[in-house]
Amino acid sequence: MAATTIATVRKSSVIPGFGLALGVTLTYLSLIVLIPLALLFWRSASGGPEEFIRISTDPRTIAALRLSFTTSFIAALVNLVFGMILAWILVRYEFPGRRLIDAVIDLPFALPTAVAGIALTTLYAPNGWIGAWLQPFGIRIAYSQTGIIIALIFIGLPFVVRSVQPVLEDLNREVEEVAATLGANRRQTVRRVVMPALMPALLTGFALAFARAVGEYGSVIFIAGNSPYKTEIAPLLIVIKLEEFSYSGATTIAVLMLIASFLVLLAIHLIQSWSRRRYGDV
Question: What PANTHER family does the record tag this protein with (predicted)?
Answer without folding.
Answer: SULFATE TRANSPORT SYSTEM PERMEASE PROTEIN, SULFATE TRANSPORT SYSTEM PERMEASE PROTEIN CYST
